[in-house]
Amino acid sequence: MDRLPLFLDLKNRRVGVIGRGSLAARRVEALFSAGADVRLFASDASAEFAVLAGRFHFGDLADPQAFEDCALCYFAPEEGEEPDAALIARARAAGALVNVADHPQISDFIVPSVLDRSPLVVAISTGGDAPLLGRMLKARLETLIPAAYGRLAQLAGEGRAALADKLTDHRARLRFWERIFDGPVAEMALAGDEGMAQAALAMEIAACRPDGSSDADLPRGEVYLVGAGPGDPDLLTFRAFRLMQKADVVLYDRLVEPSIMDRVRRDAERIYVGKRRSNHALPQEEISDLMVRLALEGKRVLRLKGGDPFIFGRGGEEIEKLAEHRIPFQVCPGVTAAAGCSAYAGIPLTHRDYAQSCVFVTGHGKDGPIDLDWSTLLRPKQTVAVYMGLAHLDFLMQEFLRHGADGALPVAIIENGTRANQITVTGTVATIAAKAVAAGLRGPTIIIVGEVVALRDTLNWYTPREGSEHGHE
After folding, report:
1. Known catalytic membership, residue 275
2. Which residue of 64, 338, 418, 447 shows the fewest CB atoms closer than 10 Å?
3. pTM, rounded to two decimals
4. Is 182 part of the annotated catalytic residue set?
5. Pick the catalytic residue: 138, 166, 275, 381?
6. CATH classification of 14-111, choosing from 3.40.190.10, 3.40.50.720, 3.10.290.10, 3.40.50.150?
């Protein structure tokens, strides 16, 4: 280790920044957020500093005492500009530690890439040898450490004094925090329920034994209702991925891609509860009962659903049963099919020239096609996204026509949207049913009706595997 990593408390301490461009502006911004008294030495600071007004004071390099009381000095020369050796020597003579951007060999310290989840902060350094690599590693950590971990760290800080009064043994305190960080208290904090997390932590501290274990009667089982998105695993949210790694058992359906299931914790039990039209692996009531039973057994249950659980995903029905049994649960939204599939097909759901509103409807009820509010659907400059409509496509298009839709109104059907085998069939209200049959579509699909479909010719960007596209009429 060539350099010792440290976290400095700079609150109200003077720090000098010498530079006029973007890098100097970023230094000022970071130092201000750390509470430093920032002095900027720049006779012609760039326009970027206008938005930083109030975060720094100007200093004068002509003043012999310019660097007096500076704990640190940052030099940010412009590209191609050589560092001013005399100024650097003056700063050091005044007792300041010096950093010169892109010149680690003449710097007393280097600036790491920082992941800020205050009070949790992660700093990454490559010793000045490969700063781009440090930034890339930071980007990876961004996906692994969501902002909620800052709330969890803050919660732990609030409970430290009370726990120290209760437990004097260091190892016992470690065991206590290990249990807290892997249990329901942490999950409450990560889910944003800070009030419940604080109350539960206080209960755990009050009930802890001398060895760090606890008599607190907190529920150990819980349910995570997670939207897996339309198919592409890269569309999973950070929170979804974290919950997928925590679950003891996973209930999943047919719309969840195998590549998404590969991201579930390896040792988690997996139970298929998939649904196809008129062919349910488990009826809805039995799925809800199963979630309740598993949670009451103390398990962390992941209910993984394609798309978003609250948009035609029956998520509301499932958590009603959980609430009835007072089982802790949280809901993690996913990218819904209309948004994901239309984007991958190059079809914006709204557009200032073509559609100022968008309506989501389902084309399939419990007993077949549903009776839609056609007066609401058939409005000008509006996009209609139809979920689960393929089985009744011909009926739906006939109803569009019967209620006054123009037969030339563009329609797109996207099958397996966002996946490698995505197929997009385009046509019109009058022709799309026959084209869907000719293409052999089987689902899952989303149907997009509206003038925005015509934009696909110029906005289509996603290239699924060869041979899976069908032409636009």
Report:
1. yes
2. 64
3. 0.73
4. no
5. 275
6. 3.40.50.720
